[in-house]
Design brief:
It is globular and about 45 Å long. The protein has helices at 18-26, 42-58, 69-77, 99-106, 135-147, 158-167, 191-199, 221-235, 254-260, 292-301, 306-324, and strands at 8-14, 31-37, 63-65, 81-87, 108-112, 150-152, 173-174, 203-206, 240-242, 246-248. The longest helix has 19 residues, at 306-324. Helix 6 (158-167) runs parallel beside helix 7 and helix 8 crosses helix 10 (292-301). It has one domain: TIM Barrel (Alpha-Beta Barrel). It is built from eleven helices and ten strands.
């Protein structure tokens, strides 16, 4: 087994192909949390699971399904990438709380309570008002805690996020965002959110999506890693990892589905891209999964110890997976 740190990326969305899977192996990526639903309803989401089953059958030497933390170790041992599934919205459960357990059994491990807009559960970060977690949201949080489906607040508004942290009996995640002190994107998170997330045992995954970076596509690796160091001081080095939000080989019209779904007839491209529809250019130092070793070197250059590099590259996510994916045990 390679002695390099475990590498886990807790958010990607790609037009999946053998090329991308081979890039994952070239970059030594042991596990990736992939988005399989934005606005899809339950039956449409099941179709996404079917598509992934076909990929696992077609490329078994490159990828394998991820259900538990132990699957990351198995993927590493067999030189493959474990694929974990998540939703960027709560649409797959429709208005039926019973679907949470069904989806977890199918393999879902993360679900955002809202995606930019108000949902049945919580408020998205684009809304002018944030009334917080709804009545249904409180029940869904309880059920997600019970079955082992991680609450993700990456696209949610401030009050809703703080309430989710407080209401959840298990640590939550913000899988792909950055601190707003570094770059004031709507989706980036305040110091208050990051402190509460850290104190609760939750996890932040740093995003490498240009609209979330200071300097956008021209962001420097040194600046990015210095930001990580400052965030570690704010919320604890054991509470941070990566959720790159890497989008590969997707046609520009996919942005319309991500941002607009079925809720509007107008085009709403979202933050940073109203005048330039489509996906922004990645920084030169992170074009795809082959560039993770360079990010790892950047952390060392920023002053992180070898132990901390191991944590940030994937050790923290692995520990979080171990505690979060299995059904909760309750005293009788």
């Amino acid at each position: 087994m390679s002695q390099r740190p475990i590498r886990i990326d807790c958010l990607q969305y790609a037009n999946w192909s053998e090329k991308i899977f081979r890039q994952m192996r070239k970059g030594g990526v042991d596990a990736v949390h992939v988005t399989i639903a934005y606005h899809e309803l339950f039956r449409e989401t099941v179709a996404r699971f079917e598509e992934w089953n076909e990929r696992f059958e077609r490329w078994p030497e490159l990828i394998m399904p991820g259900y538990w933390a132990s699957d990351v170790e198995e993927a590493r041992r067999t030189d493959r990438t474990a694929i974990f599934f998540g939703f960027q919205n709560c649409s797959p459960i429709e208005d039926d709380i019973g679907l949470i357990e069904i989806l977890h059994r199918l393999g879902a491990r993360f679900m955002q309570l809202s995606y930019n807009n108000q949902s049945l559960l919580a408020t998205g970060c684009y809304e002018a008002e944030d009334p917080g977690i709804t009545r249904m949201g409180r029940e869904v949080i309880r059920e997600m805690n019970r079955v082992g489906l991680v609450i993700d607040m990456s696209h949610s508004a401030e009050r809703s996020t703080l309430e989710a942290i407080d209401l959840s009996e298990r640590p939550i995640a913000i899988t792909h965002a950055n601190p707003s002190f570094w770059h004031p994107a709507l989706r980036n998170k305040s110091d208050d959110v990051l402190r509460q997330l850290g104190r609760s045992g939750g996890m932040l995954g740093f995003s490498l999506y240009p609209h979330h970076l200071s300097g956008g596509s021209d962001c420097r690796l040194q600046d990015f890693c210095d930001m990580i160091a400052r965030t570690a001081e704010l919320m604890g080095v054991e509470r941070i990892g990566f959720g790159s939000d890497l989008v590969q080989d997707q046609p520009d019209e996919v942005v319309e589905w991500m941002r607009c779904g079925r809720w509007t007839k107008r085009v709403d491209y979202g933050e940073g891209s109203r005048d330039a529809p489509g996906f922004p250019k990645q920084p030169d130092w992170f074009r795809d999964n082959r560039d993770w070793p360079g990010v790892e070197k950047g952390l060392r250059k920023a002053g992180f110890s070898e132990e901390d590099v191991v944590r940030i590259m994937g050790g923290n996510w692995l520990a979080f997976y171990e505690k979060s994916f299995r059904p909760a045990t309750r005293a009788t």
